[in-house]
Amino acid sequence: MQFGVTVPNVHETLAEPRTMTAVARHAEEVGFASVWVNDHVVLPPVPSAGEAAFAARYGEQHGQSLFEPLITLAYLAAATERIMLGTSVYLLPLRHPVLAAKQVVSLDVLSGGRAIFGVGVGWLEAEFEAVDVPFKRRGARTDEALRMLKALCDDADSEFLPKPVQRPHPPIWVGGRSEAAMRRAARLGDAWHPSHLTCDELRRFIPELGVHCERAGRAPADVAVTTRRRLVRSGAAAEAEEDRVLQGGPDRIAATVAELEEVGLSHLIVEIPGASEPALLENLDWFGREVLARDG
Question: Do 280 and 8 contact (CB within 8 A), yes or no?
């Protein structure tokens, strides 16, 4: 199994160039295979009920810096050498499909073939309103954009240049836990990328993904399974849903990683905790020393 790590490009205090660069460089040094950025175009204003109601509804705090993901990855490409650069996930229906294709292909070429294009349909209706995109058409727009990306990357289209380094196109990871997302991954993706699923859920859903692949005329092995989990170091308060995080000391986390690999996971993105840059880097270093070194 390969491991990735999130970079805080969407955050109240840590989304700033020095910290993002430090996380990406240190991840490369300690042996992570990939770094990942999140995506929001805009968050709605705080409702009249206040900050608590906003956090309860949107799961995020108001006042975060929202660095555009592909621009952030291009910036990090210049600061790193080998590590893969991915979006988890890029809200594809919010963008014009040709422009999105041009940007991700440009990232792939400028980074020397290191782009992974994780995409999702989005869930926050206010974001769609902000860019005048119909919320109810987000699935259809995503399918159309993915088909267009593949067509534009094809050598037969001589007007769309440059072509990506990774052929036929940068890997496409389709985010989302829903059956619609699973079907989209089977038809159009190189990986299915749901977040924070338990091992039991993965055992149940992966065979369903295989059925969707066969219906789409593809082999189940053509579509990898990847996910994200938040790291909770030993000594921290127990999580209400411990089976959705990486929690505990090295032995316990190693056992969780082994179970995820056994059920069929090929790439695990780790959400590293930390309220400051030193804390982020210390936890990143701990994971590399205690988990990556053991897995390798």
Answer: yes
What single-letter amino acid sits at 168? P
Rounded Cα distance, 23 and 277, in Å: 8
Q: Residue 19: its pLDDT value, please?
A: 98
Domain that holds residue 130: 2-295
- How far is it, in rounded angstroms, from Cα 281 to Cα 105? 30
pLDDT in tens, 251-260: 999 999 999 9
- How many Å apart are CA 71 and CA 76, to the nearest integer? 9
Q: How many CA atoms lie within 13 A of 105 on its CB side?
A: 22
| pTM of the predicted protein model | 0.94
Q: pLDDT tens digit string along 12-34?
A: 899 999 999 999 999 999 999 99
Average pLDDT in the 85-107 region? 98
250-263 and 199-215 helices, crossing angle to 10°: 20
pLDDT band at 49 (very low <50, low <70, confident <90, very high): low
User: Within 13 Å of residue 269, how many CA atoms lie on the same side as its CB?
Assistant: 28
CATH code: domain of residue 278:
3.20.20.30
- Residue for token pair 């749901």: 194
Report the alpha-carbon distance of residue 35 to residue 270 in Å, rounded.
Answer: 9
Structural domains of the chain, count: 1
The residue ranges of DSSP E strands in the chain, in sequence order, are 2-6, 10-11, 34-37, 65-66, 84-87, 90-91, 115-120, 172-175, 191-193, 224-233, 245-248, 267-271
Q: Can you tell me the mean pLDDT for 176-199?
A: 97
CA proximity to 272, closest of 296, 293, 253, 259: 253
- CA 161-163-167 angle, to 5 degrees, is 165
Question: pLDDT > 90: what percent of the chain?
Answer: 84
- ∠171-261-165 over CA atoms, to 5°? 15
